[in-house]
Amino acid sequence: IAGITQAPTSQILAAGRRMTLRCTQDMRHNAMYWYRQDLGLGLRLIHYSNTAGTTGKGEVPDGYSVSRANTDDFPLTLASAVPSQTSVYFCASSGAGTDTQYFGPGTRLTVL
Amino acid sequence: GQNIDQPTEMTATEGAIVQINCTYQTSGFNGLFWYQQHAGEAPTFLSYNVLDGLEEKGRFSSFLSRSKGYSYLLLKELQMKDSASYLCASMDSNYQLIWGAGTKLIIKP
After folding, report:
1. Chain A residue numbers touching B41 (CB-CB < 8 A)
2. Helix, strand, coil % (nearest 5) of chain A?
3. Whole-angstrom Cα distance, residue B61 to residue A56?
4. Count H helices, E strands: chain A?
5. What integer is the mean pLDDT of A65-83?
């Protein structure tokens, strides 16, 4: 692994189903983030984690949950998917403070 | 409130120079980032400014004026591969990034 990986690359999901998007980094970064990107809108922060064992809510947390059991992994779960959660989801990580955020390749999710 | 504004789309000619502007209102400002994003790909880091002035990095330069809440990204000697979206993001007092919607740059031969 080099950098950040995300899985799956893309997914079509029926409304009401549960889905977990996976994110793993090998840079030993303390902070990790989940964003969604929709056409015409900037990246919007869903949840973040400043260090393993802690998480926080971003701008659009409703319908999503996260966990940070260790430094490397930061999964995002949609408990019961709805069509408005159709989006491209990016995971990112950074060292601390003003350090640069580095992004994974993204997951394109379609909820029907 | 916190807000970032940048133009939606710009067009420029190969070999020319283009300036992409960004204005921001951010509480507890901790710097201004520029990212490049090609269609269907992840954003990649271009520059970070926290002090006033111009930072030059090859063909790309970034400028910041904290008193005016203003930044720009300057791209010189444009190449076709520079066709992408350019994202402006300011960092707030909690070290969270507030993102603009991005400027789609179209390069014409």
Report:
1. 105-106
2. 5, 45, 50
3. 34
4. 0, 11
5. 97
